[in-house]
Amino acid sequence: MKTPGSLFLTGPMGAGKSTIGRQLSKQLDLPFHDSDHEIEARTGVNIPLIFDLEGEAGFRKRESVVIDELTQLAGIVLATGGGAILDPANREHLGNRGKVIYLHASVNQQLKRTRMDRNRPLLQTEDPRARLEELMAIRDPLYREIASIVIDTDGMRVRDVVKKILEMLE
Hints:
By secondary structure, this protein is an alpha/beta fold. The protein has one domain (about 5-160): Rossmann fold (3-Layer(aba) Sandwich), CATH 3.40.50.300. Helices cover about 55% and strands about 10% of the residues. A five-stranded parallel sheet has the order 2-3-1-4-5, sandwiched between helices. α2 crosses α3, α3 (about 45-70) packs across α4 and α5 (about 105-115) crosses α6. The longest helix has 25 residues, at about 45-70. The mean pLDDT is about 90.
């Protein structure tokens, strides 16, 4: 397969962006980047602490800088944070600088995959289901707006999602 250029994985928390991105990058022999991990590496602290100190707005500013920089790299696989698509500039960078793959996951699947993860500040609430439903109502149309490929990851194994992406890229 010829190298597809840069691939940007979007989708909600729990969709498997980082895990699938790492496997996809191995299959395609492309460097892998994760915008959330890049933010943590640059700040030296985890995302929940950034949210505590700077709020979501402060985190989103940092995220926009990282998305802009990473999407300018050629021939990479990038896993974005679930809310990266909220910023119109991020959507423009992602949509114009590579192929966007939206990894869709239902709220039930997201709950199952994130229930034990304390590293997700937006889910530190009394009703995580309601929060995920609210986030999906806002974000799903934005993910779809810029996606070249949409894959439903519910009940799928990582290798099967990667295989499906590779088939769709051919």
